Amino acid sequence: MKAIARILMMIVVALLLVGGAFVFGFAVSRAVAPNNPTASSAPVASTALVQQDNAPAEFRQDMQVFWEAWRLINDNFYAQPIDQNKMTYGAVAGMVESLGDEHTAFVDPERASYLEQQLSGSFEGIGATVEMVNGRLTIVAPIKGTPAAEAGLQAGDVILQVDETLIQNMDVMDAISIIRGPKGSTVVLKVQRGTQPAFDLSIVRNTINVPEVETKMLEDDTIAYIQLTEFGDKATSELRKALSEALAKNPKALIFDLRGNPGGYLHTAIEVASEFIDSGKVVLVEKFKDGQKKTYQAQSGGIATKIPLVLLVNEGSASASEILAASLRDQNRALIIGQKTFGKGSVKTTHSLSDQSQLRVTIANFYGPKEGQIHKVGITPDILVPDPTQFERSRGIDPQLQKAIDLIKSGEIKVPQTGSSSMAHPVAEGEVGLLTALQEWIAMNWFQPRLPA
Protein backbone atom coordinates (compact mmCIF):
# COMPACT_ATOMS: atom_id res chain seq x y z
CA MET A 1 0.00 0.00 0.00
CA LYS A 2 2.84 2.37 0.86
CA ALA A 3 4.42 1.68 -2.54
CA ILE A 4 1.13 2.40 -4.33
CA ALA A 5 0.63 5.61 -2.33
CA ARG A 6 4.17 6.70 -3.17
CA ILE A 7 3.55 6.10 -6.90
CA LEU A 8 0.26 8.07 -6.83
CA MET A 9 1.99 10.93 -5.03
CA MET A 10 4.70 11.05 -7.72
CA ILE A 11 2.07 11.14 -10.47
CA VAL A 12 0.24 14.05 -8.78
CA VAL A 13 3.50 16.02 -8.36
CA ALA A 14 4.40 15.42 -12.03
CA LEU A 15 0.99 16.64 -13.17
CA LEU A 16 1.30 19.75 -11.03
CA LEU A 17 4.76 20.48 -12.45
CA VAL A 18 3.61 20.05 -16.05
CA GLY A 19 0.46 22.08 -15.47
CA GLY A 20 2.41 24.82 -13.73
CA ALA A 21 4.91 24.98 -16.55
CA PHE A 22 2.09 25.29 -19.09
CA VAL A 23 0.36 28.06 -17.12
CA PHE A 24 3.67 29.90 -16.63
CA GLY A 25 4.55 29.61 -20.32
CA PHE A 26 1.11 30.81 -21.40
CA ALA A 27 1.32 33.77 -19.01
CA VAL A 28 4.75 34.71 -20.32
CA SER A 29 3.59 34.52 -23.94
CA ARG A 30 0.62 36.80 -23.16
CA ALA A 31 2.92 39.27 -21.42
CA VAL A 32 5.32 39.39 -24.36
CA ALA A 33 2.59 39.71 -27.02
CA PRO A 34 -0.68 40.67 -25.28
CA ASN A 35 -3.86 40.20 -27.28
CA ASN A 36 -1.90 39.63 -30.47
CA PRO A 37 -4.33 38.75 -33.26
CA THR A 38 -4.10 35.42 -34.97
CA ALA A 39 -2.04 35.04 -38.13
CA SER A 40 -5.20 34.69 -40.17
CA SER A 41 -6.73 37.95 -38.95
CA ALA A 42 -3.78 40.37 -38.79
CA PRO A 43 -1.71 41.73 -41.68
CA VAL A 44 1.79 40.29 -41.79
CA ALA A 45 3.39 43.73 -42.07
CA SER A 46 1.57 45.03 -39.02
CA THR A 47 2.47 41.99 -36.88
CA ALA A 48 6.10 42.34 -37.90
CA LEU A 49 5.94 45.97 -36.84
CA VAL A 50 4.98 45.04 -33.29
CA GLN A 51 7.67 42.36 -33.10
CA GLN A 52 10.51 44.64 -34.16
CA ASP A 53 13.20 44.54 -31.49
CA ASN A 54 14.06 48.20 -32.03
CA ALA A 55 10.50 49.44 -31.48
CA PRO A 56 10.36 51.84 -28.51
CA ALA A 57 8.92 50.36 -25.32
CA GLU A 58 6.24 53.05 -25.14
CA PHE A 59 5.18 52.16 -28.69
CA ARG A 60 4.60 48.52 -27.75
CA GLN A 61 2.64 49.58 -24.70
CA ASP A 62 0.46 52.07 -26.59
CA MET A 63 -0.25 49.56 -29.37
CA GLN A 64 -1.85 47.06 -26.98
CA VAL A 65 -5.24 48.76 -27.18
CA PHE A 66 -4.96 48.95 -30.97
CA TRP A 67 -4.38 45.20 -31.31
CA GLU A 68 -7.18 44.42 -28.86
CA ALA A 69 -9.59 46.42 -31.01
CA TRP A 70 -8.18 44.95 -34.22
CA ARG A 71 -8.71 41.36 -33.02
CA LEU A 72 -12.21 42.05 -31.68
CA ILE A 73 -13.25 43.56 -35.02
CA ASN A 74 -11.82 40.66 -37.02
CA ASP A 75 -13.37 38.08 -34.69
CA ASN A 76 -16.80 39.66 -34.22
CA PHE A 77 -17.74 42.05 -37.05
CA TYR A 78 -20.72 40.57 -38.89
CA ALA A 79 -19.68 41.49 -42.47
CA GLN A 80 -16.86 39.22 -43.57
CA PRO A 81 -14.32 39.14 -45.08
CA ILE A 82 -12.88 42.42 -43.83
CA ASP A 83 -10.64 44.50 -46.11
CA GLN A 84 -7.44 44.52 -44.04
CA ASN A 85 -5.76 47.20 -46.18
CA LYS A 86 -8.76 49.49 -45.78
CA MET A 87 -8.62 49.04 -42.01
CA THR A 88 -4.89 49.79 -41.98
CA TYR A 89 -5.31 52.94 -44.06
CA GLY A 90 -8.21 54.04 -41.88
CA ALA A 91 -6.13 53.54 -38.74
CA VAL A 92 -3.20 55.56 -40.12
CA ALA A 93 -5.52 58.29 -41.38
CA GLY A 94 -7.16 58.48 -37.95
CA MET A 95 -3.75 58.80 -36.28
CA VAL A 96 -2.81 61.64 -38.61
CA GLU A 97 -6.18 63.34 -38.17
CA SER A 98 -5.69 63.37 -34.39
CA LEU A 99 -2.85 65.89 -34.89
CA GLY A 100 -5.40 68.56 -35.72
CA ASP A 101 -3.52 69.84 -38.79
CA GLU A 102 -5.68 69.72 -41.91
CA HIS A 103 -2.63 69.78 -44.17
CA THR A 104 -0.82 66.83 -42.56
CA ALA A 105 -2.40 63.86 -44.29
CA PHE A 106 -2.16 60.19 -45.18
CA VAL A 107 -2.81 59.46 -48.86
CA ASP A 108 -3.57 55.94 -50.06
CA PRO A 109 -1.66 54.59 -53.10
CA GLU A 110 -4.42 55.32 -55.63
CA ARG A 111 -4.80 58.95 -54.61
CA ALA A 112 -1.05 59.38 -54.24
CA SER A 113 -0.63 58.24 -57.85
CA TYR A 114 -3.34 60.65 -58.95
CA LEU A 115 -1.70 63.60 -57.18
CA GLU A 116 1.70 62.79 -58.67
CA GLN A 117 0.14 62.65 -62.14
CA GLN A 118 -1.61 65.94 -61.46
CA LEU A 119 1.69 67.72 -60.82
CA SER A 120 3.45 65.99 -63.71
CA GLY A 121 0.90 67.43 -66.13
CA SER A 122 0.29 64.11 -67.90
CA PHE A 123 -2.20 61.30 -67.25
CA GLU A 124 -4.42 58.80 -69.05
CA GLY A 125 -8.09 59.73 -69.20
CA ILE A 126 -10.65 61.63 -71.29
CA GLY A 127 -9.31 65.20 -70.96
CA ALA A 128 -11.93 67.39 -69.32
CA THR A 129 -11.77 69.72 -66.34
CA VAL A 130 -14.53 68.93 -63.85
CA GLU A 131 -15.90 70.24 -60.57
CA MET A 132 -18.55 69.03 -58.13
CA VAL A 133 -21.52 71.43 -58.09
CA ASN A 134 -24.23 70.62 -55.55
CA GLY A 135 -23.26 66.97 -55.62
CA ARG A 136 -23.26 66.78 -59.44
CA LEU A 137 -20.03 66.23 -61.40
CA THR A 138 -20.02 69.08 -63.91
CA ILE A 139 -17.79 69.66 -66.94
CA VAL A 140 -16.00 73.01 -66.61
CA ALA A 141 -14.41 72.65 -70.04
CA PRO A 142 -13.07 69.91 -72.29
CA ILE A 143 -9.35 70.28 -72.95
CA LYS A 144 -8.70 71.16 -76.58
CA GLY A 145 -7.64 68.23 -78.77
CA THR A 146 -8.54 65.52 -76.23
CA PRO A 147 -11.03 62.61 -76.48
CA ALA A 148 -13.54 64.58 -74.38
CA ALA A 149 -13.50 67.48 -76.83
CA GLU A 150 -13.63 65.21 -79.88
CA ALA A 151 -16.57 63.27 -78.40
CA GLY A 152 -18.55 66.49 -78.03
CA LEU A 153 -18.58 67.03 -74.25
CA GLN A 154 -19.52 70.62 -73.46
CA ALA A 155 -19.04 73.02 -70.57
CA GLY A 156 -21.99 72.62 -68.18
CA ASP A 157 -22.64 68.96 -69.02
CA VAL A 158 -23.37 66.89 -65.91
CA ILE A 159 -21.95 63.35 -65.64
CA LEU A 160 -24.59 61.20 -63.94
CA GLN A 161 -22.97 57.80 -64.32
CA VAL A 162 -19.63 56.30 -65.34
CA ASP A 163 -20.06 52.82 -66.80
CA GLU A 164 -22.22 51.12 -64.13
CA THR A 165 -21.35 53.50 -61.29
CA LEU A 166 -23.62 56.36 -60.19
CA ILE A 167 -21.45 59.28 -59.12
CA GLN A 168 -23.84 61.81 -57.64
CA ASN A 169 -22.69 63.20 -54.26
CA MET A 170 -19.35 61.45 -54.71
CA ASP A 171 -15.99 62.90 -53.70
CA VAL A 172 -14.62 64.63 -56.80
CA MET A 173 -11.31 62.73 -56.65
CA ASP A 174 -13.13 59.40 -56.38
CA ALA A 175 -15.22 60.31 -59.42
CA ILE A 176 -12.13 61.27 -61.41
CA SER A 177 -10.41 58.00 -60.52
CA ILE A 178 -13.35 56.13 -62.09
CA ILE A 179 -13.34 58.23 -65.26
CA ARG A 180 -9.59 57.89 -65.76
CA GLY A 181 -8.15 54.65 -67.08
CA PRO A 182 -5.59 53.07 -69.40
CA LYS A 183 -4.99 54.55 -72.83
CA GLY A 184 -7.10 52.76 -75.44
CA SER A 185 -9.82 51.64 -73.03
CA THR A 186 -13.42 52.82 -73.40
CA VAL A 187 -15.54 54.55 -70.77
CA VAL A 188 -19.29 55.14 -71.12
CA LEU A 189 -20.63 58.34 -69.55
CA LYS A 190 -24.30 59.07 -68.94
CA VAL A 191 -24.57 62.79 -69.64
CA GLN A 192 -27.25 65.33 -68.71
CA ARG A 193 -27.19 68.44 -70.91
CA GLY A 194 -29.54 71.19 -69.80
CA THR A 195 -33.14 70.00 -69.92
CA GLN A 196 -32.49 67.36 -72.58
CA PRO A 197 -32.98 63.67 -71.79
CA ALA A 198 -29.82 61.99 -70.46
CA PHE A 199 -27.75 60.20 -73.11
CA ASP A 200 -24.79 57.82 -73.21
CA LEU A 201 -21.44 58.92 -74.59
CA SER A 202 -18.63 56.44 -75.28
CA ILE A 203 -15.11 57.88 -75.09
CA VAL A 204 -11.81 56.11 -75.77
CA ARG A 205 -9.24 57.21 -73.20
CA ASN A 206 -5.86 58.58 -74.26
CA THR A 207 -2.75 60.18 -72.79
CA ILE A 208 -3.62 63.72 -71.77
CA ASN A 209 -0.97 66.40 -71.56
CA VAL A 210 -2.32 69.32 -69.57
CA PRO A 211 -0.67 72.68 -70.22
CA GLU A 212 0.09 74.53 -67.00
CA VAL A 213 0.28 77.89 -68.75
CA GLU A 214 -2.27 79.60 -70.97
CA THR A 215 -1.45 82.86 -72.71
CA LYS A 216 -3.08 85.40 -75.02
CA MET A 217 -2.73 89.02 -76.07
CA LEU A 218 -5.50 91.50 -75.23
CA GLU A 219 -6.52 94.97 -76.43
CA ASP A 220 -4.86 94.79 -79.86
CA ASP A 221 -1.74 93.11 -78.47
CA THR A 222 -1.08 95.94 -76.01
CA ILE A 223 -1.67 93.80 -72.89
CA ALA A 224 -0.23 90.33 -72.28
CA TYR A 225 -2.33 87.84 -70.31
CA ILE A 226 -0.80 84.67 -68.81
CA GLN A 227 -2.59 82.17 -66.59
CA LEU A 228 -0.71 79.59 -64.49
CA THR A 229 -2.97 76.71 -63.45
CA GLU A 230 -0.54 74.87 -61.17
CA PHE A 231 3.03 75.00 -59.86
CA GLY A 232 3.92 71.59 -61.28
CA ASP A 233 6.83 70.04 -63.14
CA LYS A 234 6.26 71.97 -66.36
CA ALA A 235 5.31 75.35 -64.91
CA THR A 236 8.71 77.04 -65.00
CA SER A 237 9.62 76.09 -68.58
CA GLU A 238 6.13 76.78 -69.95
CA LEU A 239 5.95 80.14 -68.18
CA ARG A 240 9.35 81.25 -69.42
CA LYS A 241 8.40 80.37 -72.99
CA ALA A 242 5.09 82.22 -72.67
CA LEU A 243 6.79 85.28 -71.20
CA SER A 244 9.40 85.34 -73.97
CA GLU A 245 6.75 85.20 -76.68
CA ALA A 246 4.54 87.80 -74.99
CA LEU A 247 7.33 90.28 -74.24
CA ALA A 248 8.54 90.06 -77.83
CA LYS A 249 5.32 91.88 -78.76
CA ASN A 250 6.30 94.77 -76.45
CA PRO A 251 3.05 94.99 -74.41
CA LYS A 252 2.50 97.95 -72.08
CA ALA A 253 1.67 95.64 -69.13
CA LEU A 254 1.21 92.01 -68.09
CA ILE A 255 -1.74 90.40 -66.31
CA PHE A 256 -0.72 87.23 -64.43
CA ASP A 257 -3.68 85.06 -63.42
CA LEU A 258 -3.41 82.70 -60.42
CA ARG A 259 -7.14 82.35 -59.78
CA GLY A 260 -8.05 78.77 -58.89
CA ASN A 261 -4.38 77.76 -58.76
CA PRO A 262 -4.13 75.34 -55.79
CA GLY A 263 -0.32 75.45 -55.53
CA GLY A 264 2.33 72.81 -56.10
CA TYR A 265 6.06 72.54 -55.54
CA LEU A 266 7.95 75.02 -53.35
CA HIS A 267 10.97 75.11 -55.67
CA THR A 268 8.66 75.92 -58.60
CA ALA A 269 7.18 78.83 -56.67
CA ILE A 270 10.71 80.22 -56.18
CA GLU A 271 11.50 79.80 -59.88
CA VAL A 272 8.26 81.48 -60.96
CA ALA A 273 8.76 84.38 -58.56
CA SER A 274 12.27 84.81 -59.91
CA GLU A 275 10.86 85.70 -63.33
CA PHE A 276 9.25 88.82 -61.84
CA ILE A 277 11.51 89.84 -58.94
CA ASP A 278 15.10 91.09 -59.12
CA SER A 279 17.80 88.61 -58.22
CA GLY A 280 18.65 88.46 -54.52
CA LYS A 281 15.38 89.89 -53.25
CA VAL A 282 13.51 87.80 -50.67
CA VAL A 283 10.70 85.62 -51.99
CA LEU A 284 9.61 83.95 -48.75
CA VAL A 285 10.64 83.06 -45.22
CA GLU A 286 10.15 79.61 -43.67
CA LYS A 287 9.75 79.32 -39.90
CA PHE A 288 10.22 75.95 -38.21
CA LYS A 289 8.90 74.60 -34.90
CA ASP A 290 12.23 75.23 -33.14
CA GLY A 291 12.13 78.92 -34.08
CA GLN A 292 14.71 78.70 -36.86
CA LYS A 293 14.17 80.57 -40.12
CA LYS A 294 15.14 79.90 -43.70
CA THR A 295 15.08 82.67 -46.28
CA TYR A 296 14.60 82.05 -50.01
CA GLN A 297 15.78 84.65 -52.50
CA ALA A 298 14.94 85.26 -56.15
CA GLN A 299 17.27 83.59 -58.63
CA SER A 300 19.03 85.45 -61.41
CA GLY A 301 17.86 85.58 -65.00
CA GLY A 302 14.27 86.75 -64.60
CA ILE A 303 12.90 88.17 -67.86
CA ALA A 304 9.81 90.03 -66.58
CA THR A 305 11.22 92.07 -63.70
CA LYS A 306 10.42 95.50 -65.16
CA ILE A 307 7.11 95.26 -67.00
CA PRO A 308 4.08 96.74 -65.15
CA LEU A 309 2.30 93.79 -63.54
CA VAL A 310 -1.21 92.98 -62.31
CA LEU A 311 -1.83 89.77 -60.35
CA LEU A 312 -5.29 88.17 -60.27
CA VAL A 313 -6.17 85.95 -57.28
CA ASN A 314 -9.25 84.51 -55.60
CA GLU A 315 -10.24 82.14 -52.80
CA GLY A 316 -9.00 79.24 -54.95
CA SER A 317 -5.45 80.64 -55.03
CA ALA A 318 -3.57 78.65 -52.40
CA SER A 319 -0.16 77.59 -51.12
CA ALA A 320 2.47 78.31 -53.82
CA SER A 321 0.09 80.89 -55.32
CA GLU A 322 0.12 82.69 -52.00
CA ILE A 323 3.93 82.53 -51.86
CA LEU A 324 4.02 84.43 -55.14
CA ALA A 325 1.27 86.86 -54.13
CA ALA A 326 2.99 87.68 -50.83
CA SER A 327 6.38 88.20 -52.45
CA LEU A 328 5.01 90.41 -55.23
CA ARG A 329 3.05 92.43 -52.68
CA ASP A 330 5.88 92.86 -50.17
CA GLN A 331 8.36 93.76 -52.91
CA ASN A 332 5.92 96.35 -54.32
CA ARG A 333 6.12 94.51 -57.63
CA ALA A 334 2.46 94.10 -58.62
CA LEU A 335 -1.06 95.37 -58.09
CA ILE A 336 -3.24 92.53 -56.80
CA ILE A 337 -6.89 92.30 -57.86
CA GLY A 338 -9.62 89.80 -56.98
CA GLN A 339 -10.67 88.05 -53.78
CA LYS A 340 -8.80 87.12 -50.61
CA THR A 341 -6.74 83.96 -51.13
CA PHE A 342 -7.30 80.61 -49.46
CA GLY A 343 -4.85 80.94 -46.55
CA LYS A 344 -2.61 77.87 -46.72
CA GLY A 345 0.75 79.03 -45.46
CA SER A 346 2.27 75.70 -44.48
CA VAL A 347 5.18 73.71 -45.94
CA LYS A 348 4.90 69.93 -46.27
CA THR A 349 7.32 67.12 -46.86
CA THR A 350 6.04 64.04 -48.65
CA HIS A 351 7.21 60.61 -47.51
CA SER A 352 6.55 57.61 -49.78
CA LEU A 353 5.72 54.48 -47.76
CA SER A 354 6.42 50.85 -48.67
CA ASP A 355 3.13 50.33 -50.57
CA GLN A 356 3.40 53.66 -52.48
CA SER A 357 1.01 55.40 -50.12
CA GLN A 358 2.21 58.76 -48.86
CA LEU A 359 2.47 60.59 -45.57
CA ARG A 360 2.44 64.35 -46.01
CA VAL A 361 3.73 66.12 -42.91
CA THR A 362 3.63 69.84 -42.15
CA ILE A 363 7.15 70.89 -41.11
CA ALA A 364 6.97 74.69 -41.20
CA ASN A 365 4.90 77.75 -42.06
CA PHE A 366 5.90 80.22 -44.73
CA TYR A 367 5.63 84.00 -44.71
CA GLY A 368 6.18 86.81 -47.20
CA PRO A 369 9.38 88.87 -47.25
CA LYS A 370 7.94 91.14 -44.51
CA GLU A 371 6.99 88.02 -42.51
CA GLY A 372 3.27 88.76 -42.47
CA GLN A 373 0.95 85.89 -41.51
CA ILE A 374 -0.49 83.88 -44.43
CA HIS A 375 -1.69 80.63 -42.85
CA LYS A 376 -5.44 80.78 -42.16
CA VAL A 377 -5.32 84.48 -43.06
CA GLY A 378 -4.64 84.62 -46.79
CA ILE A 379 -3.60 87.54 -48.97
CA THR A 380 -6.06 90.41 -49.28
CA PRO A 381 -5.90 92.06 -52.73
CA ASP A 382 -5.19 95.76 -53.21
CA ILE A 383 -8.52 96.00 -55.01
CA LEU A 384 -11.35 93.65 -54.12
CA VAL A 385 -13.53 92.62 -57.06
CA PRO A 386 -16.18 89.87 -56.71
CA ASP A 387 -15.81 86.61 -58.61
CA PRO A 388 -17.86 86.30 -61.79
CA THR A 389 -21.40 85.10 -61.18
CA GLN A 390 -22.76 82.05 -63.00
CA PHE A 391 -24.66 84.43 -65.29
CA GLU A 392 -21.47 86.36 -66.09
CA ARG A 393 -19.50 83.14 -66.67
CA SER A 394 -22.09 81.88 -69.16
CA ARG A 395 -21.63 85.09 -71.15
CA GLY A 396 -17.85 85.29 -70.90
CA ILE A 397 -17.91 88.30 -68.58
CA ASP A 398 -14.97 88.54 -66.15
CA PRO A 399 -15.16 91.60 -63.85
CA GLN A 400 -11.77 90.92 -62.25
CA LEU A 401 -9.94 90.68 -65.55
CA GLN A 402 -11.83 93.70 -66.88
CA LYS A 403 -10.81 95.75 -63.83
CA ALA A 404 -7.15 94.95 -64.55
CA ILE A 405 -7.54 95.91 -68.21
CA ASP A 406 -9.27 99.20 -67.31
CA LEU A 407 -6.51 100.20 -64.87
CA ILE A 408 -3.79 99.42 -67.41
CA LYS A 409 -5.55 101.35 -70.18
CA SER A 410 -6.02 104.34 -67.89
CA GLY A 411 -2.30 104.44 -67.18
CA GLU A 412 -2.69 103.76 -63.46
CA ILE A 413 -0.41 100.70 -63.57
CA LYS A 414 3.13 101.95 -63.95
CA VAL A 415 6.64 100.53 -64.00
CA PRO A 416 7.47 99.90 -60.33
CA GLN A 417 10.16 101.96 -58.65
CA THR A 418 12.23 100.68 -55.74
CA GLY A 419 10.30 101.14 -52.51
CA SER A 420 7.11 102.27 -54.25
CA SER A 421 3.92 100.61 -55.35
CA SER A 422 3.04 99.81 -58.94
CA MET A 423 -0.24 101.69 -58.41
CA ALA A 424 -0.45 105.37 -59.27
CA HIS A 425 -2.68 105.94 -56.20
CA PRO A 426 -3.61 104.01 -53.05
CA VAL A 427 -6.82 101.99 -52.95
CA ALA A 428 -9.79 103.93 -51.65
CA GLU A 429 -11.19 102.78 -48.32
CA GLY A 430 -14.57 102.21 -49.91
CA GLU A 431 -13.13 99.67 -52.31
CA VAL A 432 -11.46 97.72 -49.53
CA GLY A 433 -14.67 97.67 -47.52
CA LEU A 434 -16.75 96.09 -50.28
CA LEU A 435 -16.13 92.53 -49.06
CA THR A 436 -18.61 92.11 -46.22
CA ALA A 437 -18.66 89.17 -43.84
CA LEU A 438 -21.51 87.65 -45.85
CA GLN A 439 -19.65 88.04 -49.16
CA GLU A 440 -16.59 86.50 -47.55
CA TRP A 441 -18.59 83.47 -46.39
CA ILE A 442 -20.14 83.01 -49.83
CA ALA A 443 -16.73 83.27 -51.52
CA MET A 444 -15.10 80.66 -49.25
CA ASN A 445 -17.99 78.23 -49.63
CA TRP A 446 -18.53 78.80 -53.35
CA PHE A 447 -15.10 77.70 -54.44
CA GLN A 448 -14.79 74.09 -55.58
CA PRO A 449 -11.62 72.47 -56.94
CA ARG A 450 -11.52 72.08 -60.71
CA LEU A 451 -9.56 69.01 -61.72
CA PRO A 452 -8.83 67.18 -64.98
CA ALA A 453 -10.38 63.76 -65.65
Structure in words:
With about 450 residues, the chain is of the alpha+beta class. The protein folds into three domains: about 1-30; about 120-210, Pdz3 Domain; about 215-450, Alpha-Beta Complex (2-enoyl-CoA Hydratase, Chain A, domain 1), CATH 3.90.226.10. Helices cover about 35% and strands about 25% of the residues. It is built from 14 helices and 20 strands. It has helices at about 1-30, 45-50, 55-75, 85-95, 110-120, 145-150, 170-180, 235-245, 265-275, 320-330, 390-395, 400-410, 430, 435-445; strands spanning about 105, 120-125, 130-135, 135-140, 160, 165, 185-190, 200-205, 205-210, 215-220, 225-230, 255, 280-290, 295, 310-315, 335-340, 345-350, 360-365, 385, 450. The strands form four sheets. Strands 3, 4, 5, 6, 7, 8 and 20 form a seven-stranded antiparallel sheet that branches. It has a six-stranded mixed sheet with strand order 10-11-12-15-16-19, sandwiched between helices. A hairpin with a 2-residue loop joins β3 (about 130-135) and β4 (about 135-140). α9 (about 265-275) packs parallel to α10. The protein starts with a helix and ends with a strand. The relative contact order is 0.09.
